[in-house]
Amino acid sequence: MKKYIVAIDQSTSASKVFLADGNGTIVRRFSKPHRQYYPAPGLAEHDAEEIWQNVLEGMSEVTRDIDKEEIAAVSVCNQRETTAFWSRKDGCALRRAIVWQDVRAHELCGELAASAEEVKRASGIALSPYYSAAKAAHALREDPSLLARAKDGEALIGTVDSFLIYKLTGGQTFATDVSNASRTQLFNIRRLSFDVDLCALFGVPPKCLPHPLMSDADFGTVAALEKLKGVPVTGVMGDSHSSLFAQKCLYEGMTKTSYGTGSSVMMNTGTQACESKNGLSTSIAYGFRGQVKYVLEGNITHSGDTLKWLVEQAQMASSVAEVEQIALSVKDSGGVYLVPAFSGMGAPDFDETARGAFIGLSRASTRAHMVRAALESMAYQNAAVINAMQADAGARIAVLHADGGGCKNETLMQLQADLLGCPLEAADETELSALGCALMAAEKTLGTDAEKQRVGKTRLYEPGISERERLSRMDGWYAAVRRVLNKH
């Protein structure tokens, strides 16, 4: 009897695989990190083949001693915008994948600046090297042989979901879902197809791009792993979209944030694509039950990654767990702000030339103040995005739904509620990205109702400061950001 979903969550730092039941309960967990390559400042790469092998290992591990007849489907969620290049013939990677954080295509985007409005009108997102279009364009310019193969359709280019699906199905399915497609900057979010004009502008041959499908579509069957051969693949979304789905933010105005390496803030805008006037992106939430839903989104490049930097590079703490202890040793940051623009600023400012800085240091500033400022930067960045979102929507959000590793940090969660002036509901379950696509796959293959499944418990944080203090703190943040931007 079929009762399980194998849920793949391929993230920036690791490949995770889960065995989940139709109610969204995780039965088994697997996680394996992959190597991070930083060839030069502003550049970030992954070995797509290493990622694939880790995913295969995870699938084998979580299905050990499980009969294939008990597996209903394999679902996939993934780090977005990261761009892979592989051979149609054998599925092997042709070069390292270019990670979403990578800004090597900055100059290329500068050359296309005259077409910025055209790009945003069609794709919903501002012209930027963070997206797949510029990454693919740069790689094709850099390697004429790769460009020739792409024109012939022998070299394939896509986000990580499409690479994994191709590998899983033994090369039978070259497809992506509409949520991932909407983050490439080559996809027309209203026509729901890759845009010929955008492809021509960036110099990316349409023949090398995957076929876009609804998120709950049939993506073929597993062929790469004998144990799961013939199991259907369905429930495919970008990781942020998948957590939105798991949070049940399925209706207009509902908003969530995911704290990961970076953070993604999303507001569901229903079946209408809402154009932002405040530095946000318009993307597709998912394609489900024959209908496409849209979101306003703000992406923060360095969120949890800031704490990792604090430990590994700055060496101000021995572990991420110690960060909260140090931060709590002082009552506040003493007027210190960290703007973590290590590879530029994301939403709502979008300045890839900006670089990080501590602002407001005085002779009285201590390591603890700086550590607290680093932790607080996660909340300030989210609050700035949500303020822009509320301006676009013309209304305040009723509650912020939060998920990801940051939810374990009570100091951060309370600060976030304080800076927003609204309640925050933090999920105890940290793997909502995996569970969102698993719930979607379960509805498709097990007949469950994804909308009715509750995933874990939540904790409620109420704002505890006055509106005047909230505005004062945010003014301080905005002033600090202006100091690092190269647009003033």
Fold blueprint:
Elements: E1 4-10, E2 14-21, E3 26-33, E4 45-46, H1 48-62, E5 71-78, E6 83-87, E7 97-98, H2 106-111, H3 116-123, H4 132-142, H5 144-151, E8 155-159, H6 160-168, E9 175-177, H7 178-181, E10 187-188, E11 193-194, H8 196-202, E12 211-213, E13 233-238, H9 239-246, E14 255-259, E15 263-270, E16 281-288, E17 291-300, H10 304-312, H11 320-327, E18 337-339, E19 357-359, H12 367-393, E20 400-404, H13 410-420, E21 424-427, H14 432-446, E22 458-461, H15 467-484
Helix pairs in contact: 4-5, 9-14, 10-12, 11-12, 12-13
State the main characteristics.
488 residues, alpha/beta, Nucleotidyltransferase, domain 5, seven-stranded mixed beta sheet, five-stranded mixed beta sheet, 34% helix, globular
Can you characterise this structure?
- The structure is a single chain.
- This protein is an alpha/beta fold.
- The chain has a domain at 4-239: ATPase, nucleotide binding domain (Nucleotidyltransferase, domain 5), CATH 3.30.420.
- Helix content is 34%, strand content 23%.
- The protein has 15 helices and 22 strands.
- It has helices spanning 48-62, 106-111, 116-123, 132-142, 144-151, 160-168, 178-181, 196-202, 239-246, 304-312, 320-327, 367-393, 410-420, 432-446, 467-484; strands spanning 4-10, 14-21, 26-33, 45-46, 71-78, 83-87, 97-98, 155-159, 175-177, 187-188, 193-194, 211-213, 233-238, 255-259, 263-270, 281-288, 291-300, 337-339, 357-359, 400-404, 424-427, 458-461.
- The strands form seven sheets. The protein has a seven-stranded mixed β-sheet with strand order 16-17-15-14-20-21-22, sandwiched between helices. It has a five-stranded mixed β-sheet with strand order 3-2-1-5-13.
- Helix 4 (132-142) packs across helix 5.
- The chain starts with a strand and ends with a helix.
- The mean pLDDT is 94.
